[in-house]
Each structure stands twice: as structure tokens, then as C-alpha cells.
Amino acid sequence: MSDLSKVDLSLLESIADLHETPQGAYNIRRNGEGVERKSTENIQIVPKEDKPGIDIIIKPNTKNESVHIPVILTQTGLNDLVYNDFYIGENSDVVIVAGCGIHNSGDEKSEHDGIHSFHIGKGARVKYVEKHYGEGDGKGERVLNPTTVIEMDENSYCEMEMVQIKGVDSTVRETSASLKDGAKLMIIEKLMTHGEQLAKSNMVVNLDGVDSSAQIISRSVGKDKSSQIFYPRAVGNNKCRAHIQCDSIIMDNAHIRSIPEITANHADAQIIHEAAIGRINNDQLLKLQTFGMTQEEAEEIIIQGFLK
Amino acid sequence: MLELKNIAFEVDADKGQMEIIKDISLTLESGKFLVLTGPNGGGKSTLAKLIMGIEQPTSGQILFEGKDITNLSVTERAKLGIGYAFQQPPRFKGLTVRRLLSLAHGSELPFDECCAYLTNVGLCSKDYLNREVDSSLSGGELKRIEIASLMARDLKLAIYDEPEAGIDLWSFNMLVESFKTLSQKKNEGVILISHQERIMKLADEIIVIADGMVRNRGSRDDILKMITGEFDGKCEFRGGNN
């Protein structure tokens, strides 16, 4: 990764734990352009011709391989829109690490809108990890608006971990999924907002197939004057199971709305939701203080654990 | 090592101030094992919280190793080497048992040491180390992890508030053995609130607290004889305000 600056490397480490060139296939996008790319025998990364973005094509039966597709923005005033399509072959088993880091030291808005579509083949297993992070001392806003569309074929499995670490001024996340027979989806969303940040997450999971199942776990921490709105929906259109769990820690003068919605269009759909918002429990703080921590240190440990 | 001088503690109640602790003075020497017992609602847990700094006394003074700690915070007292195991420990989403024990210890605990602390409280370590200290644990499991977290600390004074509560008979034997080992350690003072005869038998001294006051104090043999043998008719600390 010789062309990358110190700032680039530090962003890559924050969003993708990358210290060096990743193993397997990868595509590194910086300031709206692909800077490094590598395909492997089983995983092809092909730039799109009609619009910005790439197609990631994973051959059937590809096992234990990974794809890294981090995006970094260090140029102020840039609005980077990208379309990434993932075609995951039947019976493959892969890990995909995405994520976006913005370093905005200017006064203009930097924005990245990633539109990701997943086509997960029969019996395939995917683990997808996406981290969003912002930094920089400029007045310019750091904006990330990801859209994720997931189509799951029969008996496929997908685990998505979507994390917004800190420093993102505004985010509107749109996630939708449709599941065929026996497909299983797990979404874990973790989010922390501070300052005057705003985060919205809209999610809809359509359980169309027999014995499809979904679990949505959302954990968030709202600090300072930040605002969060969660609107996850599970729609049972067949014999299926789904569970939505939203759990938030509220601090300072933050605002959090949590609106889990469940719909059953079939008598054998079993769907559950639960949601909770509350401040850090006083006994938790006291317990850690009896270990010799200050209240601030205790809060930090509790939040770290909660969002781990 | 620890000295309480005329400690009183009041809270606001419907009918004005209510005295929870009326006037308690006691001393604990280094390395001694003191059991506090007495009826529910008598003020034992409050006394423990006053020593840890979770509550502040309305009047009186607390000395630890000759230093006045009455106005010190929980954090400051913890740093001096005082530890407290909650009667009803809190749960932590996302925090594993191993992490909690390491936080208690003050640095990352090696695997073997973590296992030893859990074994001491009757938990099979390999099943628990990576479990989260959340609602998936039963009350008894949580309680034993709480005790292990105190044992993982390097303390001068350890306070246990009813460690046996909610613990099954099988694990209880293990726990008694662990407290026996603890009672033989000469560098750590222990204050343990308990109603269990087998734990009281480990004590160097037993203090009976009732109605916010010390009702009786003495050696293990004297007090146990009083509690177990001559309870009926003569007992003056059976609870309530009688």
C-alpha cells in the first residue's frame, strides 16, 4: 500500500483493522477512485462501466476466503456515490469487510453514499462487517448514507455487523432484505453518536420463504445533544421466525427514538420485538468504582462492553 | 486497621428522619475475619455500604489504617484497598466474565488465574470465562462471579454482603472452603454479612446488629452458643423492634 499516506493508513486501520495489504481479494477506494485492486481465482472484482462502483463476483463453492473493500475520504467537499454489487455463489463461505473512513479537515461537507446489493446464492454463508468512522478538525460535515439491499436464496446464511464508531455527523441508513425458504439473516447494528450528530436507521426484512428466520439486534449509545431514530421492521409472509431487539443507552441531552415494527401476513409467522432505552445503571457504575475506577472510566468501560 | 467511631445514618422518610444506623462503633484488626449477623432490616448492609463509601454517614468517623476516610469517595477507598461484593450484583451487557475479573484485578488476568478464581466459587471455568455477565446468568451464577471478582482483587479489607444468598447447597460447600482459606490469610481483613452457621464458624469475631445498633459482640464460640443454643425465650435480637 505504498501510495497511501499516514492519514490513509490510519483510517484503514480504524475501519478495517488493516495494517498491511489484506489477504485475498481487495479493492481500496480513495476520494472517489479505486487506488488498489486485486482479484483472486475465486473472487473477481470488476469495475462497473455505467456508473461508479464494482461488481464482486464470488464463484460457487468458494470456501474460507475474504474480500476487503474499504473506502476512505480525505478530500473536503467531495460527494462520493458508489454502487457495489456482490454476487455470492452457491455453497460458498466468505467474509466481506467493508467500511468507510472520512478525514475532513476542511470546511466543506464530505459525503460517502455506498449502495450495496447482495445476491446470496443457495446454501451460501456470508459474514459482512462494515465500520463507519469520521475524524478531522475542520468545520465540514462528515456524512455517510449507506443503502444495503440483501437478497437471500434458499438456505443461505448472512450475518451483518454494521458499526458506526464515532465522528460521523449525519447518517441515514437504509437496509432491506428478502429471505427465501430456510434463509437465515442476522443483523447487528452498533452505533454511537455524540456532539450534535444525527443517525437514522430504517430497516425492513421480508421473510418470504418457509422456515426463514431473522434476528435484528440494535445497540446504541447517544451522548451530548445527538439524536438517533431506529425503525426496524420485520414482515412475516410465510411460516417464519423473527426477533427484533433495540437497546439504547442515553446520556447527557441526547434524544433517542426506537420504533420496532412487526407484521405477520401468515398464521405461522412468529415475530417478537423488544426495545429499551435507559441511562447507565447506577449499580453498574458503583460496581466498577469499587474496583478503583472513576465514574468517567466506569462509563467508558460500560459503553465499550455494550457496543463491543 | 478499620475503626468506626459513633457512626449514624439517617434517611428521609414520610414521618421525618428515620435512623437506619443509630450509633455504631467497632474496630477490625488487620487479617481478622469478622462476621456481621442479625435480623433482616437491622442495618448490616447499610453499615457495609458506609464502609465502602456508597453511603455517607450522617455523623461519625471512619478510619482506615489510621487515616480518616469518612469523606473519601468509593473510588478513593477502593484505591486504598477496600473491596465490596454486592448483595445484588449488577449485570453488564457485553462484558465477559473474564473481562470483569480482569477489571477487578486491575490488569489482564492470565487464563489459569481466572479459572482458579471461578473454581473457588464452584463454577466450571471453561463454561463461564467467555460468557457475558448479562441476564443469561442465573442469580446464583451472578452472585458467585461477584464473589470471584472480589477474590481477584488485591485487598486489605474485603466486604461480602450475604455471599451465600441464592447459592445452591452444592456450591455452598465450595464457598465455605474458599472463605476458610480467606480467613487464614493474615494480610486481608474480611467483613462478611451472613446468616449461615457454617460461615459464622470461620469468624474470629461475630457482631450482632439489630435495630441499627450493636446488640451483641464476642468470639465465635460465645455468640454462636447464644444464637444456636439459647435462641428461644432469651434471644434479644430476633428482629423487628422487640
Describe this structure in words.
The complex is a heterodimer of chains A (308) and B (242). Chain A is mainly beta and 308 residues long. Chain A contains three helices and 22 strands. Chain A has one domain (6-281). Helix content of chain A is 10%, strand content 56%. The longest helix of chain A has 12 residues, at 295-306. Chain A is globular and about 55 Å long. The mean pLDDT of chain A is 92. Chain B is α/β, with parallel strands linked by helices and 242 residues long. Chain B has one domain: Rossmann fold (3-Layer(aba) Sandwich), CATH 3.40.50. The radius of gyration of chain B is 18 Å and the shape is globular. The chains are: A mainly beta (308), B alpha/beta (242). At the A-B interface, α2 and α3 of A face α2 and α3 of B.
Query: What is the strand content of chain B?
Result: 25-35%
Distance linking N and C termini of chain A: 29 Å
What is the overall shape of chain B? globular
Total separate domains of chain B: 1
Structural class of the secondary structure composition of chain B?
Answer: alpha/beta
Task: Give a short synopsis of this structure.
The complex is a heterodimer of chains A (308) and B (242). By secondary structure, chain A is mainly beta.
Any key phrases for this structure?
heterodimer; A: 308 residues; mainly beta; 11-stranded mixed beta sheet; 3 helices; 56% strand; B: 242 residues; alpha/beta; Rossmann fold; 6-stranded mixed beta sheet; 4-stranded antiparallel beta sheet; 9 helices; 10 strands; globular; disordered C terminus
